[in-house]
Design goal:
By secondary structure, this protein is of the alpha/beta class. The chain has 2 domains: about 90-125 and about 135-285, Rossmann fold (3-Layer(aba) Sandwich); about 295-605, 3-Layer(aba) Sandwich (Rossmann fold). The protein is about 35% helix and about 10% strand. It is built from 24 helices and 16 strands. It has helices at about 1-10, 30-40, 50-55, 65-70, 80-90, 105-120, 150-165, 180-190, 200-205, 225-230, 235-245, 265-275, 290-295, 310-325, 340-350, 385-395, 430-435, 455-465, 475-480, 490-505, 510-525, 530-545, 555-560, 600-605; strands at about 95-100, 145, 170-175, 195, 220-225, 255-260, 280, 295-300, 330-335, 375-380, 400-405, 420-425, 450-455, 470, 575, 580. Strands 3-4-2-5-6-1-7 form a 7-stranded parallel β-sheet, sandwiched between helices. Strands 10-11-9-12-13-8-14 form a 7-stranded parallel β-sheet, sandwiched between helices. Strands 15-16 form a two-stranded antiparallel sheet. α15 packs antiparallel against α21. The longest helix is centred in the N-terminal third of the chain and has 16 residues, at about 105-120. It is an enzyme of class 3 (hydrolase). Belongs to the DEAD box helicase family.
Length: about 675
Amino acid sequence: MQRIFRRCVVAAPRLRTAAPRLPFRYIHPSPIVRQEAQAAGEFKEDEKITKFRQLEERGFIHPNIVKNLVGNMKLETLTEVQQKTINQALDGKDIIAQAKTGTGKTLAFLLPILQNIIKIDPDLARANYSFKGPRTTADDIRALVISPTRELAEQIAQEARRAVRGTSIVVQTAVGGTQKARGLQSILREGCHLLVATPGRLKDIMTDNYSQIEMPDLSVLVLDEADRLLDQGFWAEIQEIMQLLPAREEVDRQTLMFSATVPPDVVRVVRRTLKPGFNFVQCVPADEEPTHKRIPQKVINVNGFENMLPTLAELIQRGIDASSEPTGRPFKAIVYFNSTAEVTLADEILNNLSSPGAEGSEHPSRRRHPWKRISILPIHSKLTQSQRTRAAETFKRSKSAILLSSDVTARGMDFPDVTHVIQMGVPQDRESYIHRIGRTGRAGKEGEGWLILPPAEIRESRTRLRGLPIKQDGSFGSATADLVREDVELAPEVGGIVEMLRKAAEGVPYRAKAAVYSAMLGTHSYVSDKEGFMAALNRLATKGWGMGEPPTLSAGIVGRLGLSRVPGVRVGGREDGEKFGKDAFERTGLFQRDSFQRRDRERGFERKDPFQRAGFRERRPFERNGSRGGFRPRYSNKLDGGKNFRDGDTRRGWTKRNKDSPF
């Protein structure tokens, strides 16, 4: 009662009358044409808007929003998906849009959302510098955007905040990997109009009786990367979230879905979620060649695990050398690993490199790195959200950089000008390979895909990657060199790379190597020749990492993996004061979920920020799940059955039947 009274005193009354909407198909380039079109009811396709400034001139988007787009974000021309969706979304239509990442789809749904928020309360269009108290509360959430990953959610929120600069619209996030209590306090203290969330954290706060997040006036729901939401098993959580939202019979709600592909699973969700008469916007030509068939792809077969990092270093050096040529592009690569432990170890080794002849300098600042002008950045699920965001933003802004990544960046993230995608080992499935490759060759620019394979993975790769246009490349000396025998003389360029990597690996802590050793047992559980695999793994530890002997494994892990009688397995549990166990196993099918799967991503199995002081833990008053003497009503929502589903409202001229539409 006290909270209701406070809101009535502080908050200004909301203007809820909707302005009449012009019934036309395209946005017209002048008021005269608009009047003529309104009178005639007929419109020409060549009269659609193509510039952001025209959105302001024709009265569709508020001038303060357009000012940010054109002045601060330096945007001028609308993309195809923006031209096809903004007007329909402003009209309140439910939309399913098929568009690739990097085509401007984020602004395609953000602009209608922001304009509708301003339409409901025009005072939000300007900044509020009053000190009379907050005018916005947690109940003012008008739009909800659900994204499959933290990175994509933060990217959407950042773009929204840039678009609303100078207004009173409040954008908040609710994502895994961040402190739940701090996020809730921010929403309750500052209020919220637009909430961008991941499914796990959103469900968590909406089912928490103490969170005070209800969204009674929600008018827009956006499902971004809908195909990925389904791929990663989020549909059950999304259904639960929708049951907690106000029923459509009580509060009319617009639903916008964006997806790079429209498989049968997405079609079924569309029929259950969108209102009859929704529009299908297709921005991917049916006959367009997929990225994974268009991008040149090569595989490098190496002698053993110990050859993989030297081959990667040789490939990177080739790319850097090619970038210095007159027609060369700046070298910018994403290197994918199959576990977070491998990302961490590669980061330690590659950032610790010293050029031959510079090894005498013990202080890191005095070392001469062979790629001194190129940043090497790690990103994976065990970093804090701030660390991951910082790495992603740095890589985006860099002209030349190397991003060492697990699968957290394989989909949804838009990194410009990536020239190389390098995959260290066979990915867990064909889809992961294809989505990784899709990070390069974007916006009409060229790119390359590379796969580095050890002998233990060649047979499995033929099954998982069958039919893909991958050609073998045998030109890398580091791949075929014998790095095990001491009496073999290496070629000078290969020997320099190997020696440089060995010296860098010697400075890496035991625990980092042991974690990779343990994780690789999980990622290679499909290998039938256990004895041969353990011998290869031990060669990696001793010859590749410079360890005196391979790491030990706990008796429990050895028993569960069936390695008790395999030669070469060292049982010890703890050694050299280090401890490792289940947390090193990153892949599905062993002891825990993938580092990029839902539970790991949403529940925050990340390491502490190294900049945080030890011993301090913030209280989390909102995390209890009991009841506290009061009943908090919940909304129910009956999903549309899709019985009256049709292609669109052709009477108003919004859509024509698309022969390629799956609906």
